[in-house]
Amino acid sequence: MALIQIDSFKELFNVGVGQAAGILNQMVGTNIKLEVPDLEIIRQKRNLENIEIINKEVLSAIEEKFEGVFSGKAILAFPLRSASRLVSLLIGEEIGSPDLNSAMIGTITEVGNILINALLGTIGNIFKAKLTLSFPHHFKGFGIDLIDIEEETPQEFVIIICKTRFSAEKLQIIGYFFLIIETQAMERLLSAMDKKME
User: Fold this and answer.
1) CA–CA separation, 72 vs 45, rounded Å?
2) pLDDT tens for residues 116-158?
3) Which residue(s) pair with 158 in the sheet?
């Protein structure tokens, strides 16, 4: 994939997370910045084994499946320590407190829902078509298990891994966005992005 196309994807993700940041700021009254410093596109599931975050840490993740002009699923995942920091920031509870622990899943699910909807809404706008999303589902696991693509059909899917940085009140919180889409849809998306850039 050409570098310019990867840069276009980064810009696409930046637009989506920028919209999500605006929604989060309105919700909590805190100036939260979201950035996309790194983005990687994987075309074979086995190549994920070389990505440390996929295999070394348990992640707290939110998944939503989508369908429409194309189908796939989106996952927002945080290492557990980052998840605790983010929830602490959003609800104003100390890390380790009973109230924070009880609010963890609900808060992470809401953040994931906001970010996934913003990003997929941005992609849908490029196609001028709406994507229908499933209800968000929270679970924990290693990234390789969260992605859950059958090894027998790896050529049918493309995995986009987007590192997302949440910055607020001198905190740096890292999350990972996984977008799994059909290969043909990926090609159509690239074509649509190229036309938009012309």
Assistant:
1) 15
2) 988 888 888 877 778 889 999 898 887 767 776 554 444 577 7
3) 181
| Ramachandran bin of 83, using left for φ above 0, alpha for ψ from -120 to 50, beta for the remaining angles | alpha
DSSP classification of residue 29: S
Asked if 87 contacts 102 with a C-beta cutoff of 8 angstroms, the reply is no
CA diameter of the chain: 53
Measure the CA dihedral 13/172/51/21, to 10°.
-20
- Residue in the block written with tokens 């996309």: 36
96: phi then psi, degrees, rounded to nearest 5: 95, -10
The phi and psi torsions of 37 (rounded to 5 degrees) equal -75, -30
Both tokens of 152, joined, read 């027998």
CATH architecture, domain 3-185: 3-Layer(aba) Sandwich (3.40)
Residue 151, judged by CB atoms within 10 A of its CB (0-12, 13-18, 19+), counts as exposed
Q: 45 near 25, Cβ under 8 Å?
A: no
- Give the CA distances from residue 82 to residues 19, 140, 143, 172, in Å, rounded to whole numbers and listed in that order: 21, 13, 15, 9
| pLDDT the model gives residue 81 | 86
Tell me the pLDDT tens digit for each residue of 54-95.
667 788 889 999 888 778 889 988 888 888 888 887 777 777
Domain residue ranges of the chain, discontinuous segments joined by +:
3-185
Provide Rg for the chain, Cα atoms. 16
